[in-house]
């Protein structure tokens, strides 16, 4: 087990892949969010920050193995980016991990945090936390076939299994296979709460995550849940290796424009919000030429200009007009007229 702050797979074998992993850090991550962190969103986020580590939406093993769409599609500009998988079959997870490595993803992450009924029915996501032996089998299967890091995203507990003893025993066992764990500092209720309620109702318990770091000092721990500002991120970084933000990244993507300078001692890539939008235009026009609709491309921008005069008009104009047939960047230009003088 290594004590460096970058993810490392103790079982990695460089002969398994001809792809040389790029340098990346978990110091600041944007969470995998279903229906949000698609390839368009990740491309836009990368314009705002060069150092944040990005994650795909959760992709199930069934979708990858049996689906017709290319669920692994991404742009090289998004790197570093990790693939998050959902599943419970070790053979299928290993197969999908290999596919992810072959396509150039820098990490494979196993989702053990999603509490949705569909995921529960499939016996993966947060439900899989209840079967630690199966989790370890799955992790070992993936670690044995890829040379890139394998990580895991968990909750601090599931249903009635929410004691610190349960969590520490869980961590002790999985740390035999991997050395980086992303922890959402809330428990998950598999019955009685919707996925949205599971992100809000179970109380946050950051001290429990901090305690894990004390008890497992060689483990790289990334904390997640309720983090909405870079100041909050800095506070957490006093106790753990990394932070992961979720909803704040799309509700207020402007905060990403200061990640590099505030957390990595690096220059921020763009000078203002309008510049970030203009920098997105070539990608938008390329995607439009391929048949992508503008409505799918403007979603990561809707939360821009939060707190600025005209922000509501910006969101409303985009929402009402990006869905029209033939909509192009002129729609965004028009929306900018409501806010650009104030940004």
Automatic annotation (TrEMBL):
<comment type="similarity">
    <text>Belongs to the Dus family. DusA subfamily.</text>
</comment>
<keyword id="KW-0820">tRNA-binding</keyword>
<feature type="binding site">
    <location>
        <position position="84"/>
    </location>
    <ligand>
        <name>FMN</name>
    </ligand>
</feature>
<dbReference type="GO" id="GO:0050660">
    <property type="term" value="F:flavin adenine dinucleotide binding"/>
</dbReference>
<comment type="function">
    <text>Catalyzes the synthesis of 5,6-dihydrouridine (D), a modified base found in the D-loop of most tRNAs, via the reduction of the C5-C6 double bond in target uridines. Specifically modifies U20 and U20a in tRNAs.</text>
</comment>
<dbReference type="GO" id="GO:0102264">
    <property type="term" value="F:tRNA-dihydrouridine20 synthase activity"/>
</dbReference>
<protein>
    <recommendedName>
        <fullName>tRNA-dihydrouridine(20/20a) synthase</fullName>
        <ecNumber>1.3.1.91</ecNumber>
    </recommendedName>
</protein>
<keyword id="KW-0285">Flavoprotein</keyword>
<dbReference type="GO" id="GO:0000049">
    <property type="term" value="F:tRNA binding"/>
</dbReference>
<dbReference type="InterPro" id="IPR018517">
    <property type="entry name" value="tRNA_hU_synthase_CS"/>
</dbReference>
<keyword id="KW-0521">NADP</keyword>
<feature type="site" description="Interacts with tRNA; defines subfamily-specific binding signature">
    <location>
        <position position="312"/>
    </location>
</feature>
<feature type="site" description="Interacts with tRNA; defines subfamily-specific binding signature">
    <location>
        <position position="315"/>
    </location>
</feature>
<dbReference type="Pfam" id="PF01207">
    <property type="entry name" value="Dus"/>
</dbReference>
<dbReference type="GO" id="GO:0102266">
    <property type="term" value="F:tRNA-dihydrouridine20a synthase activity"/>
</dbReference>
<feature type="site" description="Interacts with tRNA; defines subfamily-specific binding signature">
    <location>
        <position position="196"/>
    </location>
</feature>
<feature type="binding site">
    <location>
        <begin position="32"/>
        <end position="34"/>
    </location>
    <ligand>
        <name>FMN</name>
    </ligand>
</feature>
<feature type="site" description="Interacts with tRNA">
    <location>
        <position position="111"/>
    </location>
</feature>
<feature type="binding site">
    <location>
        <begin position="246"/>
        <end position="247"/>
    </location>
    <ligand>
        <name>FMN</name>
    </ligand>
</feature>
<feature type="domain" description="DUS-like FMN-binding">
    <location>
        <begin position="30"/>
        <end position="327"/>
    </location>
</feature>
<dbReference type="InterPro" id="IPR035587">
    <property type="entry name" value="DUS-like_FMN-bd"/>
</dbReference>
<keyword id="KW-0819">tRNA processing</keyword>
<keyword id="KW-0288">FMN</keyword>
<feature type="active site" description="Proton donor">
    <location>
        <position position="114"/>
    </location>
</feature>
<feature type="binding site">
    <location>
        <position position="153"/>
    </location>
    <ligand>
        <name>FMN</name>
    </ligand>
</feature>
<feature type="binding site">
    <location>
        <begin position="224"/>
        <end position="226"/>
    </location>
    <ligand>
        <name>FMN</name>
    </ligand>
</feature>
<keyword id="KW-0694">RNA-binding</keyword>
<dbReference type="InterPro" id="IPR013785">
    <property type="entry name" value="Aldolase_TIM"/>
</dbReference>
<dbReference type="GO" id="GO:0010181">
    <property type="term" value="F:FMN binding"/>
</dbReference>
<keyword id="KW-0560">Oxidoreductase</keyword>
<feature type="site" description="Interacts with tRNA">
    <location>
        <position position="199"/>
    </location>
</feature>
<dbReference type="InterPro" id="IPR004653">
    <property type="entry name" value="DusA"/>
</dbReference>
<feature type="binding site">
    <location>
        <position position="184"/>
    </location>
    <ligand>
        <name>FMN</name>
    </ligand>
</feature>
